[in-house]
Structure formats: structure tokens, C-alpha cells
Amino acid sequence: FPCDSIRNFSIIAHIDHGKSTLADRLLEMTGTIKMSSKGANKQVLDKLKVERDRGITVKAQTASMFYQQKERQYLLNLIDTPGHVDFSWEVSRSMAACQGALLLVDASQGVQAQSLSVFHTARERGLKIIPVLNKIDLPAAQPDRVKAQMHSIFGIDPSDVLHISAKTGEGISAVLRAIIERIPPPSGESTGKFKAFLFDSSYDRYRGVISLVSIQDGVLRKGERIASFHTRKKYEITELGIMHPEEVPTTQLLPGQVGYIACNMKQSSEAHIGDTLHRVGEMVEPMPGFQPAKAMVFAGIYPVDSNDFPKLEESIKRLTLTDRSVTVQRESSAALGQGCRLGFLGSLHMDVFRQRLEDEHDAKIVVTAPTVPYKVVYKDRTVIVSNPTDFPDIIDTSMHVREVQEPIVKASIIVPEEFLGEMMDLCFEHRAEDVDHRYLESSGETSSRALLTCTMPLNEIVMNFFDKLKSRSSGFASFDYEAAGYKRSNLVKMIFLLNNKPVDALALIVHQSAEQTIGKMWVKKLHKVIPRQLFEVPIQAAVGKRVIARETLSALRADVTAGLYGGHYERKMKHLENQKEAKRRMKRIGRVDLPQEAFFDILSSK
Ligand code: GTP
């Protein structure tokens, strides 16, 4: 395949606007996969169970297809991108291997917050953008209105917009034509020095690391020796080929092509996303690499049964082989035992990982409250703290702490104008600043859409901001955010005491203005789940030496019987006594016996 018969593209869209469905249609139309019966949506590219459950794409998948137009055969490489705000790093990494992108917008929902962010990423990368309106089969579709939005927001000429239904297949051949006609072919010299760009990797038990590469120059063949620019390590190509959509070995990979390589790479840490590969003995100019994914949400993950730690650690290790953006560190807690502190790109990313641990590895786990990385500025150094335990108890200049800073994001919300006020309130409740808005359509519409922008602490959106946003806008608001640096803030460490002893696993970092509300809420929650003891137990929330909230768990008396949690607990304990295991699981904090499951209840209830 000469370069000018190759097109590399991705599909970019807001979540649920139909990316996977369109990808399926393209694969069908080009005969890469068999027609699914009656247009049923098979979504070949969404492989993981959690992706099917949640209907979101988590990991980018790539597929090559052949397409005949007139006398000529083309090789089209689709680089699928994940569709959620947490995964924007994966989106931009996939785009680096493309020359063009299909910007897919749902004709009934219009432009949404992530349509905006993916559009900007694609434009920054200099990609040719083909605007596509999807779901025109829906009675609620408003193609003209959405085209007007695309014109006003992106400056897209309405006559360039394709109309399709990925569901019925209408308009798909026009999409294939547009890919060939509008997207420039990759440039590259087959005679040049071999140079490839590594943009994704996965792990195979037998063959080791499988890397996805985009060939920039030169030809790569089996048996050749290549080196990584980043690690300087050398490898021999044992297998290469294209994704069609599964791996199909070929004899060579040509400039402009996208394909997979296996080269006896043993550790997935050797495959650096953004790395440049070259032939051993040849020098090449490296491709501009990527910033490594930065973990922004951290949480401790512990086994419900402490004996399961080795198994849990092994499962986490396995999972991180397929998801390299997760960072892992061992940690231990007096209350929960041995565990791991994991770093994620965002809170959805965390949920997805947790679900995969539970689904694919059958792990029973307790996850601590998520924390963002704070900067603690001391007189002589700055420390990033992503575990509340390491946060200073008191922020006091005499303690050499100058200040504390928290990560800030720039948030965009798109919402019908009738919800604008409600959304503004929500943002203000979450410490938003620089709140601004504009309308996305010119007047005359009954209900226009507004784009609300503001800056907000990341801390405010990791808990359940997204759920609130959805419920307070009747599901209409869409949301996206990007990192916007750090800002000085009045943060305090809140600890919880049981019978006057702190429970390390429950420490939180909160803004001072919210300490009362949060302290009271957690103390109530603890009061509800902690089983009564034979003596009275004070449950307190404290900041420094100040007690913010208190509840008292009254003593369990012999006449307490059925119906009460305490009674229930007693019966349960009798039963458990027969199992030796039970003793081991009890955690003793300030003379209070706490079943490990209580932590599960505390940490899983919102
Ligand atoms: P993520 O992978 O989560 O980003 O979502 P996606 O953009 O891949 O969306 P997906 O293809 O999963 O489609 C979302 C929903 O819209 C599914 O229920 C599809 O069946 C439906 N859908 C997709 N295209 C069309 C269409 O043209 N018409 C109609 N009526 N429904 C469609």
C-alpha cells in the first residue's frame, strides 16, 4: 500500500453519540466483520465487560479495513478513542497517529461538553475534521438546529456536515467517501530510515507486550532489530501485522500504516506511550512524545479479608498491565491492614478499575474515600500529598507549613437555558469561581442551550458532582473539565475518632467552609453502621484538636432484642463465633470491635 492509499482517522464524540455503532457500521460496510443481524449493535470494538455494562469505551481499540473505491483499493485505519472525560489522555494519544477525525454529534442532543473538548484536541493536533450528524432516524432529531450550533461553536460550514444514522446504516457510504476525499494521506518515505511511533500497548501472556505503532518512515519486517529511543533497549521483531479487527500477521508494515508488533518485550513498563522506535544502529529524530498520564484521583484499596492481600495485589498487577495509566503503591492502615494506594485519571476511571477488579478477578475490596493530590508548601520544599494520612494535622506557619494548594480545573457545562440558574447554584455550592456563560444558538429558539464555564477545585467534582449535575438538570447537562493548575486554599484534615482513638482509614481532607457539614454527615453515617458495644462509644469528627461533630453510640444492654441493629449484630456475632475466621477479621480500635464489613458499609454508602 502506497502512502496515498492509506487514511488514518479516529471518531471523536461526546459519550453515547454513537461512536461504537458507527465503527461497527464502517467495519461491516468494508467487509471487515460480518453484517450483524437486523442492525443489532454488536459493538465489536468495545471488548471489556465493564464497557458493555456501562456502555462506554474504556480502552482505545484500533482496526484496519480495506475499501474499494472506483479502481482503487484503500487501507483505512480506524483508531477508536474512549469517550469519557477521564480518558481524555487516551483520546489525545490515539489522535497522534491520525491525520483526520470524524466529529460525531447526536442530531437529537446537539453539541455537548465533550464534543467541545475533543474538537479542540483534534484541532490542536492539526487534524482534518469531518463533521457528522448521527441518529437522524430519531423523530427528535433536529439536524438544522444542530448544524447551526456547530456553525456558531466550531465555525463549521453547514454544507460540510454529513447526515447519517449509524443504526440503520443510512449515509455510511458517504462517510467512507469523505474519509478518502477529505482526510490527507499520511506522509512517509519507504526508503527512509525506519521510524515508528508507539501509541498503545497491551500484554499477552505468551508473547509479552504487544505494541500498537504508527509507521512514520521506512519499512518494518519480521526478524529486524529495533530499539526504543526512550529506554535504549533493543528488541527483535517476532511478529507484526494489522488489526483486522483482530491481529492478522503480515510480512511487513509500510510507512503510514498502523499495526501491532511483538518483540519479546517482557515488561509492559518498557512500552512507553509516545516513544519513538528505530532500527538498531540508525539515528533518527524522535517524535515529540507525550506527557505521561497524570493520576489525579487516589484511593486506598484493601481486601475485605486481610488474608486475601497477596491475591489482591496480584490481581491489581495484572489489571495494570492492561491499563497503564493506573499508579500503584503499597500502603498499610491500622484499621484495614495491608493494601494498595492507587492513582487514577479521574473518578470514573477509578470506578471502572474497581468494577474490573470485582468482575474479572472476583476481588472483595474496600475502597477509601477518593483524594486528589495536594501540594503542601513547607519553608524549604513542596510535597505532593495524595493520602490524607500524610497531610499535616494543623496548617500553622510555626509548623513550617507555608500554605496548602489544591488542583483546580476549568469546567464546561452545556445545558438548556432553563437549567442555567440551577447549574450555577450547583457550581457555587462547589466553590466555583470565574463563572461565566454564553448562549450557543442565536435567538428565535424556544429553548436555547447555554455554555457555562468556571474554575473549580478538582476535589469538589470527584465525589458525586456528576450525579448531582445530572439529577438537577433532569439529565440534560453535559460536563467536561481540564486541569488548570494549583491554587492556595484553606484546607484541613478531618479525622474520626472511635472511643477517642483515630481511625486512620477514614481521614479526609476538606475545605474549611465545609467542615461542619461534612463532619456531621460522616459522624451520623458512622453512628448508623457501627455495631453497638457493651459500653458507650463516642464517635467524633475532629480537625486538629477541635471536635467538630459528635454522636454517642449507646451501650448494648442485655434486654435489647430483635429489631435493633445491635440485637441483630449480637446474633450475628454468636453465629460468627463458631467460625474461627471471625476473630481474625475483627478490628479493634479504641477497645471497639469493628467487623471489617463495617468499613465496607461506611465507605460504600454515599
Ligand atoms: P461511548 O463508547 O460510551 O463513547 O459511546 P458511543 O459514542 O460509542 O455510543 P454507542 O455507539 O454505544 O451508541 C450509544 C447509543 O446510541 C446506543 O444505544 C446506540 O444503539 C444508539 N445509537 C447509535 N447510533 C444511532 C443512530 O444512528 N440512531 C439511533 N436511533 N440510535 C443510535
Descriptive report:
With 606 residues, the protein is of the alpha+beta class. It contains 15 helices and 33 strands. It has an 8-stranded antiparallel β-sheet with strand order 11-10-16-7-8-15-12-13, with no helix packed on it. A 6-stranded mixed β-sheet has the order 2-3-1-4-5-6, with helices on both faces. A hairpin with a 3-residue loop joins strand 21 and strand 22. Helix 7 crosses helix 8. It is globular. The termini are far apart. 43% of the residues are buried. About 3% of the residues have low confidence. InterPro entries: EF-4, EFG_III/V, EFG_V-like, EFTu-like_2, G_TR_CS, LepA_C_sf, LepA_CTD, LepA_IV. It is found in: Mitochondrion inner membrane. One of its GO terms (cellular component) is mitochondrial matrix. GO terms for molecular function: GTP binding; GTPase activity; mitochondrial ribosome binding. It catalyses: GTP + H2O = GDP + phosphate + H(+).
